[in-house]
Amino acid sequence: MNFAAKQISRLSYQLTNNPFQFRDLLSGNVTKQAVDMIEHYLSEKRKIYIYSEQYDVETLMKKIEKFEDRYNVSPVIIIDFIQKIPVLNKITTKDSIDYVVSTLEKFTHENHRTVILVSSFNRFGYYSPLSMDSFRETGNLEYAADVMLGIQYQIVSKNKIFLTEGKLAEKQMLIRNEDAKKVREVELCCLKNRYGTQFSIPFKYYTEYDCFTYSNQSSSTTNRI
Q: Do the beta carbons of residue 68 and residue 61 sit within 8 Å?
């Protein structure tokens, strides 16, 4: 429900001059404009299939294979997120992630599948600029992935306090200030690119509409994603 509401709200921000918040839909405040956006969303929804159940990695692979056979397509697979995939008989989170990653790596190579894995950072990753160390607790994910991307607040790379050790309370206060903003300045950082160069792209994130815009461009609807 939240996913659909955010998608519809984002459409209203992308396509109209009078966008509405996804919370309006969740609270039952549905206007004529919202109905139009819902109809537009439903017309495009066939391109996205969502499975909200939690599967172990073996069941997940079978589901993907059945989907491919049924629709005769090679979908882009997004798993949100890897730490939620249950694994039996693994003692630590690292062991579980290692098993999932190695299993999926073999699975993706079989038919050249594209898989996007969403992962959490380690608990200290939010208070220093993004680096490979941010994924230290994610097992062999950093070695298996062709590309690794992360999102952080721009202030983390701009404010020198985040480059120093200690001062945790001050860093937490700065992050809380960013969390409280309706429009947040963030950046997408490429930490690894097996077949290309690394990069960083600044964005503005509009929390009320779950929408990103390129922060170095104007706020016209053509720049909203």
A: no
